[in-house]
Task: inverse folding
């Protein structure tokens, strides 16, 4: 079965998730399909709507199979209210991964519901206590990954150590870095700075002698300099850092636009600056970093931003395809077989008393 | 005594703190003195060195009194090792505020030691459990304040509520906003998102019917839009957010410079863009936001960045002068007289069970 799957790259799609679905979903898939001729898509959603849209994309249509889902998870739905509804496009798309019909699922729908249904359906990989949300971000000269970004508001030292392990494997596959530098996010470089669980995680990672290039603590302002490839933190802190970064990047670009608008002279300089603008855009465009991955489960769930456009959606699908090609899920399962952090964590905690 | 103090604006200065002290300190004071003719400075440090530097600034010299301090707190000193050494320039400068000789102290030295000695010497204002570090930051159309930025790694709901109170009063004085909008930093707008202590703090603030314009939760990416004037958070999260913002602003500017350097055409546009660059610089220049204030004590401690230059140092001193002029410490003591969050907090916590 595994052999068949790896030769048949199949991504299941929640066609109804997101602000302008299923239109943006189909437009995004068209872009992704063009770049990935070997990918096939299982689309779950309103059959009539989806098929009508697909008519405009004959090439895409050839690699799509549409399956009717009678219900939709809405953004305002509480995860607990929809988690056991097997008729939603979201549930059906995730379930396709569980059934082995697809190797990854992409949805732009309700984040909480997507995480909850994914956890319940795909289950955590043995030895991993909590899955984490990871995303790919730009630094000055390349890219890095950060996790967790919100799956777990509170994390203990064992959770953080597991995120370090998973992030390391993720970065190898997603960024193609053979030996990623892994760091714990903290508010100082000194051993005593920050929180107890961070100090303990550092001890666990060091003592476990994992096959990881663990470089210790990193502070947020060092991230853009490219000092680490994997940034490990709890879901609350990661979410704060991510949104601070996104908000500030937007602010600076906005301030520039405001300043150019106000300046008569600057307008004459604009044509010369076109290339520079494009360059910055190419590095910082949030659409190019769309797609947060839920890792640590027996299958891969990719969450697209709900308000993204076709290009952004295609990037999320591209991430899914890339990680399936790189055999991310089989690899993480295999690599984790050899590690037992649980007993180590108990030992470390015992040592601290 | 209070009357005398308010007519005599005196700032005590740790002349030996910071990377290039006492040179940068004296150069910075020269700028600050030019802008504030009524301010006087009590300088603590190596008398010979300081007096030699002051010779170059005759106008500044007239408003300075130099007092010899035989020892210096170094950056690598542990706070616990220096906290009771009464011979350091840092201790003596802080002690001048306690003795009523100065109304605020400025130091560019070891942050941990500065906070520890300030707490021990100046003591927390009655009814406040923990002091907080607050700073002034730019958003798209104005400024906001954020606290705590690192004085307290872990905070409970009562601490956060007190920060909201103090931040409100601080913003009135530092930003001149008559009714600041106060928000709790969180990872979502919904009541259930984020951490328990944040939810409880929101309950306490609402139930206390404080004279505060409390607008609920704010997410980091909303800050640059200017949605709130006071951002309240624990010291760990605040430090992460602050450093993420600083790092990203620097990254975007760096990317632009890199792109211009690489582009032959862009160089021709540069002269037109000079005004825009200056405009951004004026808004985002970290030196213009130098000076973190420790609030909640019987006196005001201002921490300058250790690596700043004369302009940056002068901004930190300017903050101290401005807050003394605005009677910040007497005001916060007076306003807090009428509030009793302690009993309210117990009630709320009791309610939650």
Result:
């Amino acid at each position: 079965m595994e052999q068949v799957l790896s030769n048949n790259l199949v991504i299941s799609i929640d066609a109804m998730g997101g602000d302008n679905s299923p239109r943006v979903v189909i437009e995004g898939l068209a872009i992704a399909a063009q770049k990935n001729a070997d990918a096939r898509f299982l689309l779950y959603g309103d059959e009539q709507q989806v098929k009508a849209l697909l008519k405009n994309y004959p090439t895409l249509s050839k690699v799509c199979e549409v399956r009717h889902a009678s219900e939709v998870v809405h953004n305002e739905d509480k995860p607990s209210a929809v988690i056991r509804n097997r008729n939603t496009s979201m549930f059906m798309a995730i379930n396709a991964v569980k059934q082995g019909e697809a190797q990854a699922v992409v949805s732009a729908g309700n984040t909480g519901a997507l995480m909850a249904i994914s956890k319940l359906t795909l289950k955590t990989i043995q030895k991993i206590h909590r899955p984490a949300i990871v995303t790919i971000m730009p630094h000055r000269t390349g890219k890095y990954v950060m996790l967790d970004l919100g799956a777990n508001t509170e994390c203990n030292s064992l959770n953080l150590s597991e995120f370090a392990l998973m992030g390391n494997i993720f970065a190898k596959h997603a960024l193609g870095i053979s030996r990623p530098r892994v760091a714990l996010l903290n508010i100082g470089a000194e051993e005593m700075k920050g929180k107890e669980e961070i100090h303990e995680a550092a001890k666990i990672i060091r003592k476990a002698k994992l096959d990881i290039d663990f470089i210790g603590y990193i502070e947020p302002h060092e991230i853009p300099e490219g000092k680490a490839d994997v940034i490990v933190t709890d879901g609350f802190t990661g979410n704060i850092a991510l949104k601070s970064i996104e908000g500030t990047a937007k602010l600076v670009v906005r301030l520039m636009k405001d300043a150019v608008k106000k300046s008569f002279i600057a307008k004459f300089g604009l044509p010369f600056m076109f290339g520079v603008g494009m360059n910055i855009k190419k590095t910082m465009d949030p659409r190019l970093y769309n797609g947060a991955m839920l890792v640590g489960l027996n299958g891969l769930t990719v969450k697209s931003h709900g308000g993204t456009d076709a290009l952004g959606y295609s990037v999320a699908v591209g991430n899914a395809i890339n990680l399936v090609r790189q055999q991310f899920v089989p690899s993480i399962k295999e690599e984790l077989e050899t590690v037992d952090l649980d007993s180590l964590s108990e030992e470390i905690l015992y040592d601290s008393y």
User: Anything to note?
Assistant: Residues 103 and 271 of chain A are 46 Å apart (CA to CA). Chain A touches chain B through 56 residues (CB under 8 Å). Chain A has two domains: 1-124+297-330, 129-295.
